[in-house]
Structures are given as structure tokens and as C-alpha cells.
């Protein structure tokens, strides 16, 4: 059970469209994606890790002006099991007395409409790093990244436990201006945000805005 110091408190609600993401790097990534799509009016909040989501949603739901929220999107990494990750978010929503969608990437309910986005997608183990790496498979630096980890495997007999995170770090280190966070890399356009691998993420963001615009933006 989390102590009071471990519970991340939500920011005051300022927008009717809310997006909850795992951490700071995710926040910077989605800001870059929104800029790429040419959309605004979505407030991004960080719940700082999957283990804090349940408590965060309870606090978020209890805010006096929660009634102004018309659309709520929640983003979570699939980690080892995309289905379990989705069910975990739905359980947290139910615990807070909120509706939940029947499947990922769809919105259900009213005032607020609620949707859950699991990354890299609804069926594959992985995380935000996984989908970002998909977008740069044709980047020449990825050949160097692959060769590096092949060397690690050969010389040391193991690979990093979270290989996608390690591959992201190696890829970012290849750039003229090195950054250390995935979100910073997104702000510098190191990920190919126009790549088709992000299409389902963009659809989710457009669905989050659906009641205020009927057009598909940035697709």
C-alpha cells in the first residue's frame, strides 16, 4: 500500500479533455505528438507509474471541478501483457466509480467519455519505447544499435533486462545533440511521428477530442 508521500496528486483540472500518462517522458512525448498533429486543448497529467494509477484516479475523480471533464484518456504501457495492462486500468476506473471501455482504444460512457490506450498496441508486450523504435527502423543509426547489442550478447552473454529501453538510449546517443529521455527526443523530432506505427495513437487522440471536432487531425 502506498504512503501519502508516494501518492502523486493530480494537478487542478483546467481543460475538459484530460490525458493521464505514466511519467514525465510520456508527457513530453504526447506534447510533441499533439504539436505534430496540430491539436491543443488537452491537459496532460502524470500519475508517475502504474502502481500509483489507482490512487491517482481516486484523487483525480474527487476534485470539485471534475464535472467539467467531458473526455478522459488513460495511457499505460503493456509491459509483459497488454490484456492484463488494460484490465488493470479498467479495475482502477471501476474502483473510482467511473465507467470503463470494453476494449482498448475505444471511448465509452458519458460525462466523461473514457478511453484506454495500451502501448505499443492492444496485443503486443512492450511500452512507449517499443513503438518509438518501430518508427526509426529505417534510420541508419539502428544498424549500429543492433550491432552494439549483438556485441554485448556475444561478449557478455546477456542483454539488458528491458532491451527496448536500452535500445532507445543507444539510439539517442547516436544523435549530434544527445538527450537522455525519450520525451526529450520526441521534442527534438528524433522519432518519426508521421510514421504509420503511430496512426492508432493519433486516432485515440482525435477520439479524445471528438465531441469538439468531427475532423480527423494530423492523420
Explain what this protein looks like in three dimensions.
This protein has 219 residues and is α/β, with parallel strands linked by helices. It folds into two domains: 125 residues, Ribose 5-phosphate Isomerase B, Chain: A; 60 residues, no CATH class. It is 40% helix and 12% strand. It contains eight helices and five strands, in the order E-H-E-H-E-H-E-E-H-H-H-H-H. A five-stranded mixed β-sheet has the order 2-1-3-5-4, sandwiched between helices. A hairpin with a 4-residue loop joins strand 4 and strand 5. Helix 2 runs parallel beside helix 3 and helix 4 packs across helix 6. The longest helix has 16 residues. The relative contact order is 0.17. About 2% of the residues have low confidence.
Counted by DSSP, the helix tally is 8
CATH class placement of the largest domain: Alpha Beta
Radius of gyration: 18 Å
Briefly note the structural class of the backbone.
Answer: alpha/beta
User: Main beta sheet, described?
Assistant: 5 strands, mixed
Q: What's the overall average pLDDT, rounded?
A: 93
Write down the overall geometry: globular
**SSE order, one letter for each helix or strand:** EHEHEHEEHHHHH
- Helicity level: 25-40%
Q: Return the CATH architecture of the largest domain.
A: 3-Layer(aba) Sandwich
How many domains is the backbone divided into? Answer: 2
| Neighbour order of strands in the largest sheet | 2-1-3-5-4
Distance between the termini: 42 Å
Strand content: 5-15%
The poorly predicted ranges are: 212-216
Amino acid at each position: 500500500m502506498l504512503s501519502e508521500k508516494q501518492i502523486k496528486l493530480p494537478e487542478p483540472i483546467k481543460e475538459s479533455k484530460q490525458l493521464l500518462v505514466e511519467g514525465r517522458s510520456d508527457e513530453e512525448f504526447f506534447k510533441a505528438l499533439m504539436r505534430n498533429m496540430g491539436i491543443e486543448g488537452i491537459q496532460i497529467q502524470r500519475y508517475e507509474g502504474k502502481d500509483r494509477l489507482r490512487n491517482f484516479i481516486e484523487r483525480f475523480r474527487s476534485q470539485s471541478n471534475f464535472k467539467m471533464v467531458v473526455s478522459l484518456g488513460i495511457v499505460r504501457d503493456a509491459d509483459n501483457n497488454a490484456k492484463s495492462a488494460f484490465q488493470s486500468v479498467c479495475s482502477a476506473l471501476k474502483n473510482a466509480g467511473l465507467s470503463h471501455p470494453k476494449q482498448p482504444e475505444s471511448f465509452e460512457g458519458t460525462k466523461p467519455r473514457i478511453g484506454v490506450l495500451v502501448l505499443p498496441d492492444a496485443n503486443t508486450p512492450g511500452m512507449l519505447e517499443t513503438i518509438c523504435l518501430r518508427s526509426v527502423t529505417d534510420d541508419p543509426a539502428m544498424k549500429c544499435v543492433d550491432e552494439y547489442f549483438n556485441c554485448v550478447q556475444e561478449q557478455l552473454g546477456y542483454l539488458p533486462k528491458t532491451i527496448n529501453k536500452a535500445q532507445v538510449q543507444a539510439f539517442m546517443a547516436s544523435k549530434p545533440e544527445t538527450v537522455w529521455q525519450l520525451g526529450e527526443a520526441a521534442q527534438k523530432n528524433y522519432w518519426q511521428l508521421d510514421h504509420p506505427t503511430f496512426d492508432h495513437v493519433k486516432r485515440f487522440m482525435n477520439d479524445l477530442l471528438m465531441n469538439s471536432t468531427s475532423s480527423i487531425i494530423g492523420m
